[in-house]
Amino acid sequence: MKKGVLERLESSDEGTFGILRYYDGEYLHYFYAGELPWRDNAPNVSCIPKGVYTVMWTRSPRFKRCMYLVAKVAKRSGIRAHAANFMGDDTKGFRKQLHGCIALGEKLGWLGGQKAILVSRPAMRRF
Protein backbone atom coordinates (compact mmCIF):
# COMPACT_ATOMS: atom_id res chain seq x y z
CA MET A 1 0.00 0.00 0.00
CA LYS A 2 1.23 3.47 -0.87
CA LYS A 3 1.16 6.08 1.88
CA GLY A 4 1.57 9.64 0.80
CA VAL A 5 1.22 13.24 1.85
CA LEU A 6 -0.20 15.98 -0.36
CA GLU A 7 1.14 19.34 0.77
CA ARG A 8 -0.79 22.25 -0.68
CA LEU A 9 1.53 25.16 -1.38
CA GLU A 10 -0.68 27.82 -2.95
CA SER A 11 -4.23 28.45 -4.06
CA SER A 12 -5.72 31.09 -6.32
CA ASP A 13 -8.40 31.35 -9.00
CA GLU A 14 -5.94 29.48 -11.28
CA GLY A 15 -6.06 26.41 -9.02
CA THR A 16 -4.62 24.83 -5.91
CA PHE A 17 -1.07 23.55 -6.34
CA GLY A 18 1.09 21.36 -4.17
CA ILE A 19 3.44 18.41 -3.96
CA LEU A 20 2.47 14.77 -3.42
CA ARG A 21 5.17 12.66 -1.80
CA TYR A 22 4.98 8.94 -1.17
CA TYR A 23 7.40 6.19 -0.20
CA ASP A 24 7.02 2.83 -1.92
CA GLY A 25 9.20 0.95 0.57
CA GLU A 26 12.35 1.54 -1.47
CA TYR A 27 12.21 5.02 -2.99
CA LEU A 28 10.67 8.38 -2.18
CA HIS A 29 8.59 9.63 -5.12
CA TYR A 30 7.16 13.08 -5.65
CA PHE A 31 4.76 14.68 -8.09
CA TYR A 32 3.29 18.11 -8.48
CA ALA A 33 -0.43 18.12 -7.76
CA GLY A 34 -3.18 20.37 -9.06
CA GLU A 35 -6.72 20.77 -7.79
CA LEU A 36 -9.52 23.25 -8.22
CA PRO A 37 -9.51 26.36 -5.99
CA TRP A 38 -11.19 26.03 -2.58
CA ARG A 39 -14.89 26.82 -2.98
CA ASP A 40 -16.32 25.47 0.31
CA ASN A 41 -16.23 21.85 -0.93
CA ALA A 42 -18.88 22.56 -3.57
CA PRO A 43 -19.09 19.63 -6.03
CA ASN A 44 -17.50 20.20 -9.47
CA VAL A 45 -15.96 23.57 -8.54
CA SER A 46 -13.87 23.01 -5.37
CA CYS A 47 -10.88 21.03 -4.24
CA ILE A 48 -11.62 18.53 -1.48
CA PRO A 49 -11.21 19.50 2.19
CA LYS A 50 -7.88 18.98 3.92
CA GLY A 51 -7.85 15.61 5.63
CA VAL A 52 -6.63 12.04 5.73
CA TYR A 53 -8.05 9.88 2.95
CA THR A 54 -7.76 6.34 1.69
CA VAL A 55 -6.89 6.09 -2.00
CA MET A 56 -7.90 2.91 -3.83
CA TRP A 57 -7.31 1.49 -7.30
CA THR A 58 -10.81 0.92 -8.69
CA ARG A 59 -12.69 0.95 -11.96
CA SER A 60 -14.24 4.30 -12.82
CA PRO A 61 -17.68 4.06 -14.42
CA ARG A 62 -17.20 7.53 -15.92
CA PHE A 63 -13.71 6.97 -17.40
CA LYS A 64 -14.31 3.24 -18.08
CA ARG A 65 -10.89 2.21 -16.78
CA CYS A 66 -9.09 1.62 -13.49
CA MET A 67 -7.87 4.74 -11.71
CA TYR A 68 -7.10 5.89 -8.20
CA LEU A 69 -10.18 6.89 -6.20
CA VAL A 70 -10.00 9.19 -3.17
CA ALA A 71 -12.51 7.48 -0.88
CA LYS A 72 -14.92 8.84 1.71
CA VAL A 73 -14.67 12.54 0.89
CA ALA A 74 -17.41 14.34 2.83
CA LYS A 75 -20.34 15.37 0.60
CA ARG A 76 -18.45 14.29 -2.55
CA SER A 77 -18.08 11.21 -4.73
CA GLY A 78 -16.01 10.05 -7.68
CA ILE A 79 -12.88 12.01 -6.74
CA ARG A 80 -10.13 10.51 -8.92
CA ALA A 81 -6.47 11.15 -9.69
CA HIS A 82 -5.93 11.59 -13.42
CA ALA A 83 -3.96 13.53 -16.01
CA ALA A 84 -4.88 17.19 -16.57
CA ASN A 85 -3.16 20.53 -17.09
CA PHE A 86 -5.71 23.15 -16.04
CA MET A 87 -7.65 23.51 -12.80
CA GLY A 88 -8.79 27.11 -12.76
CA ASP A 89 -12.09 28.72 -11.83
CA ASP A 90 -13.93 28.80 -15.15
CA THR A 91 -16.43 31.39 -13.85
CA LYS A 92 -13.47 33.78 -13.65
CA GLY A 93 -12.19 33.02 -17.15
CA PHE A 94 -9.64 30.33 -16.33
CA ARG A 95 -9.47 26.96 -18.06
CA LYS A 96 -10.21 23.77 -16.16
CA GLN A 97 -10.07 20.07 -16.94
CA LEU A 98 -11.08 18.93 -13.47
CA HIS A 99 -14.43 18.68 -11.72
CA GLY A 100 -13.10 17.97 -8.23
CA CYS A 101 -10.40 15.42 -9.06
CA ILE A 102 -6.65 15.71 -8.52
CA ALA A 103 -4.13 15.98 -11.36
CA LEU A 104 -0.52 14.88 -11.00
CA GLY A 105 2.43 16.04 -13.07
CA GLU A 106 6.19 16.07 -13.24
CA LYS A 107 6.43 19.86 -13.57
CA LEU A 108 4.59 22.99 -12.56
CA GLY A 109 4.58 25.85 -15.04
CA TRP A 110 2.53 27.96 -17.41
CA LEU A 111 0.48 27.12 -20.51
CA GLY A 112 -1.10 29.93 -22.48
CA GLY A 113 -0.64 32.39 -19.63
CA GLN A 114 -2.26 30.18 -16.98
CA LYS A 115 -0.55 28.26 -14.18
CA ALA A 116 -0.67 24.56 -15.02
CA ILE A 117 0.43 21.04 -14.18
CA LEU A 118 2.82 19.81 -16.88
CA VAL A 119 3.94 16.35 -18.07
CA SER A 120 0.82 14.90 -16.49
CA ARG A 121 0.27 11.67 -18.44
CA PRO A 122 3.81 10.35 -17.83
CA ALA A 123 3.43 11.22 -14.13
CA MET A 124 0.17 9.28 -13.90
CA ARG A 125 1.82 6.26 -15.53
CA ARG A 126 4.63 6.42 -12.93
CA PHE A 127 2.21 6.83 -10.04
UniProtKB/TrEMBL annotation:
InterPro entries: DUF5675
Entry-linked Pfam families: DUF5675 (PF18925)
Residues annotated as domain DUF5675: 6-127
Protein name: DUF5675 domain-containing protein
